[in-house]
Amino acid sequence: MPSLNGTWLEFERPIVELDRRLEELRSFADRGDPEFKEEYERLRRRAEKLRFETYSRLTRWQRVQLARHPQRPYTLDYLKRLVPDFIELHGDRNFADDPAVVGGMGRLGGRSVVIVGHQKGRDTKENIRRSFGMPHPEGYRKGLRLMQLAGKLGLPVLTFIDTPGAYPGIGAEERGQFEAIARNLREMARLEVPIVALVIGEGGSGGALAFGVADRVLMLENSIYSVISPEGCAAILWRDRARAPEAAEALKVTSRDLMELGIADEIIPEPLGGAHRDPDQVARAIEEAVLHHLAQLEALSPTERRRRRAQKYGSMGVYREN
What we know:
Elements: H1 13-30, H2 34-55, H3 60-67, H4 75-82, E1 87-88, E2 101-108, E3 111-118, H5 124-129, H6 137-153, E4 157-163, H7 170-174, H8 177-190, E5 195-204, H9 205-209, E6 216-220, E7 224-226, H10 230-238, H11 244-251, H12 255-260, E8 266-268, H13 279-298, H14 302-314
Parallel strand pairs: 3-4, 4-5, 5-6, 5-7, 6-8
Antiparallel strand pairs: 1-2, 2-3
């Protein structure tokens, strides 16, 4: 149920209005008045049906909105539930620490792992500090440093992807943004330990792919993954960002699209209405899926993992024309 006191999206308005009417009727129904109780039950069934119909028929643009929902869990929200002994490590040993990327070590289901992920902020102040989840070069270099540490220790790597894209500022370009992303792509392809990438919200362009070269790519049901944002695509193609919903349909950004294209390996289901409705449930599903794939990957030799990883990415974009 959309929170009446929280943030809700425009397409959720009819559901929210019904829920408000239910709240108004609840006190009367609780008094045992048969007339109000009957009306309350009728509205409750209607609201449940409307919720199911709305969330089971989401357009691609509506899923984009859910992927960006301000109440959606971020990397640290999941780590609190999944890795209670998580130890965060800082800095790229070159320039600075980038708060848009968090990383460290801990135990997931009793298994030691190295974790790297994008991190957005909840309010304006924190979003500015974390660059709205858009990493600078030092963020990618910090992530790479931790992944290389995982290689030395023989620990699997888990990445959380949730970014609109790499930070677009001049300073980031001057410090080698493109080189940092390219190096991550190369080194992740070579890494001998298992890598599982999890798209939990937005998977935007090279900023996401820099943590996305993995043996397995998992996506939450309402997450998105694309070479460009729908707004950016609309601005380039039609000089009109208002056509973003049309661009989202053309780009095929949803988890189901990515599964059909052979890019994602598994879709992790979310509660009706999005991951923010029940983060604990989503965290349990993430843990089960990640541990399942890690067990499969650890049964392979490092050479075989690297071979299959290269084959996975080498086959993307290949098609046959009849």
